[in-house]
Amino acid sequence: xxxxxxxxxxxxxxPVIGPYTVDEFIAAAGxxxxxxxxxxxxxxxMVHEAKSHIAEGILFDAISETAWCLPDAVQMLTPCTVxxxxxxxFHLGLYAVSLFDKFTGKGVRVAVETxxxxxxxxxxxxxxKLKPKKEQDSDRLREEIRMAGASICSVKEIALRPEFxxxxxxxxxxxxxxxxxxxxxxxxxxxxxxxxxxPYMGWIGxxxxxxxxxxxxxxxxxxxxxxxxxxxxxxxxxxxPGVSKDAAFTRGQVLDVGDVCRLQRMGRFEVYVEEEExxxxxxxxxxxxxxxxxxxxxxxxxxxxxxxxxxxxxxxxRHGGLVTINEEALEELNAIPGVMCATRHAFSVVEKGQQIAxxxxxxxxxxxDTLGEALRTLGGGPAVSVRPFGxxxxxxxxxxxxxxxxxxxxxxxxxxxxxxxxxGCPVVATDIVPDDRKLICRGVQDMLDRGVELIVTTAGLSVxxxxxxxxxxxxxxxxxxxxxxxxxxxxxxxxxxxxxxxxIGVPACALYFKTTSLDLLLPRILAGMSPSRRELARLGHxxxxxxxxxxxxxxxxxxx
Length: 560
Prior knowledge:
Elements: E1 16-17, E2 20-21, H1 22-33, H2 38-51, E3 60-64, H3 70-77, E4 87-89, E5 96-101, E6 106-112, H4 121-127, H5 138-148, E7 153-159, E8 173-175, E9 182-184, H6 193-197, E10 203-204, E11 207-208, E12 220-223, E13 236-240, E14 244-249, H7 257-265, E15 270-273, E16 283-285, H8 286-297, E17 302-303, E18 312-317, E19 321-325, H9 327-334, E20 339-343, E21 349-350, E22 355-361, E23 365-367, H10 368-377, E24 384-387, E25 394-399, H11 401-404, H12 412-421, E26 427-433, H13 437-449, E27 454-458, H14 469-475, E28 479-483, E29 494-498, E30 501-506, H15 517-526, H16 533-538
Parallel strand pairs: 3-4, 25-26, 25-27, 27-30
Antiparallel strand pairs: 1-2, 3-5, 5-6, 6-7, 8-9, 10-11, 12-15, 13-14, 16-23, 17-18, 18-22, 19-21, 19-24, 20-22, 28-29, 29-30
Helix pairs in contact: 2-3, 13-14
């Protein structure tokens, strides 16, 4: 049989796809999918092949690695559907499908292999989008798919990772306190729609933003010259461009004759004044709302006891430490119209009394239902905390034969000592050992015997054959090894632990650069937050030091 490109093939692919002939499957695909898409036809052959490797009577689930066409082949030929949760779509962009035992996770993966497409040029054109859809030869493409079937696919045994085993249960169901609709409680304190993830323009959850009405209650307004003797309803800000910005009048201040001219110079020709019969049941003044929001936002180590200023509460650190942010809770809060909270960057190092966050209501009066919704988003815990630094006993182990022999003067110990002592950590042990894995191992053990609580090793972490620091550390019992970080300078940094004692491996770049990966990682470790591999990966965004001639770290983008 001649192929379309002139080559030959022994025969057509399987004459059946599941319970259908190929022609019957193509017709059924047209009815199910809307049209007989090439990807669905090829998917039929792939699913048919995968099923042939599943023993009779085995209950199986399915995974499609693309969201296009292939999932419909699974739903047509197996009991697995998106709706019943037996078919899961991991949109990896790969044309591959897997069927596996529900209970053991063992099964088979069928995937299109590009190196098998040489006899099928039209399939290659379609798969790689080498031609626009309208220019593709649909009849020839279907004919090649008929001939190729699953022969252009690899078939490999797979075993599912444990975290992906089990059903897709919804878990507990709750009524969203904002829109009242049922939703999975694991999504948070409000439903995802009310968190701002609705696909509909102008809507958040069940609310039409045009009807939310943040204008507040009707307030009494008087002309400035008629306000003598009245009490102001809110702080009024005076701005002197480039010089100052502060409240010239505070809430509850009684205005006198001399204030009239000052108000007018500020551009305040009318002012809100207190009213006796304000409907307090529906509305909350900005100051009171700010107090309630701050109390909910603030976690351990955060002082929110200050009085509102211009409708805003500023939160400060109760003690020195590392700022931690519950970014999901903060985002949920800020997605609610009418409230806001701004914070410093997560993992900022702060001293006692430094500002770390501020919150306020946007309108002068906030609806109680809106305030309640905002507070519920923080029901799972605060958004901002400050973790104190542990005063750990530090051991510094310098590796390098040239330093050990005195050929090169050691500069690591004073550099590392200055950095750890800045956090109040005493250096209780130092040692210099040659590039010998046994001696490195022994040096670590000696420090552990001396009761160190944090070990900092230096140098010997590059790709040079003589750098054996890592091997010596492993011999000493290093666990949870994380070698390499997306931070420059400091890509060769190593993290791990030995018997519960944290260890940081600092590369030689710390001798030259003032600011390195150590400056980002040391405070996290001292705060008990040694980063995981995934957390280290996130540091790549902002992890490039600009090596400014005048270093201003941490007042710069490095590590942000």
